[in-house]
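Journal club side-thread
Mid-discussion, someone asked how the predicted structure for our own chain would compare to the paper's figures. Pasting it here so we can look after the session.
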Amino acid sequence: MFGRRTRLLAGALAVACTVLLGPSTPSGVPFAGPLPVDAADVVPNRVMTWNICNPCEADNADRAAAIATYAPQVIGLQEACVRDVERIRDHLESRYGLVYHVEYGTVLRDWGRCGGALWSPGAFGQAVLSAAPMTGAVSVEYPDGGSEDRGYMAVTTTVGGLPVRVFNTHLAQRRQETVRAAQTGVLAAAVARYDRAIVLGDFNAVPDAPELAGMWALAADTDPRCSPSSAGTCEPTTDWQSTFDYVFLRGLAPLEHRVHPTPYSDHHLLHADLRSVSRPRPGSPGGDGTADTARRVRQR
């Protein structure tokens, strides 16, 4: 009950600030609105992916409010500094009563992006927040990151009441098609070990891009209308009206999905609700994390 009252109060304050101050970005994208009354607890079958944009002038309290609005069971963040994620997690708990576990997939240390001391800059990369505990965490750096080190992380956690292997990635920047193709090959080889997996992330590629073929061969997008052959019907996930962010499902069925522009990032917030989770074949790797033998990245 305390979490619900806190959420309502925060929602009212957010609305009041929007009325008084207006949108906080030049694009004029409105915030999602008041936090829903019925979302005082996490939605157990909901997953979310969001490139939170870095460097961007966004407050972590605002980022937390955007996440709390939809209260997913699992959140995959890209372009995330460890310190920012810690603050987001703290805001989610103290302001909204939403308690998340965190695992990091940092692939570089960058003072310009993440602050810290010049001799000890902050860590940068991916992060997964989960309302349920996580096991089997790995963080893998791609052999070729392109213009910036990139990688994927994976954890085993609970979605919809069953264990699932969750991957979170950020592929090379645009105009690096061959680099992304090699990265997708590394990622797809890891995902293929699991009958039940969710792959979240910013792939920096539209649905019909050749470098995504390996992922489409293994999994379907949470939007049943979105596929390489129907790229025109895929909902844009960026301010420049491209579809770059995905929730790929393997061994799971989508119920619905939503794309939410926010004033806090140039990527939209994408969440998906899942119908049911299929059970793996006897003796096959499901969501327990035992099949993933990928190396843990060396922190640099």
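Post-session note: The chain has a mean pLDDT of 84.
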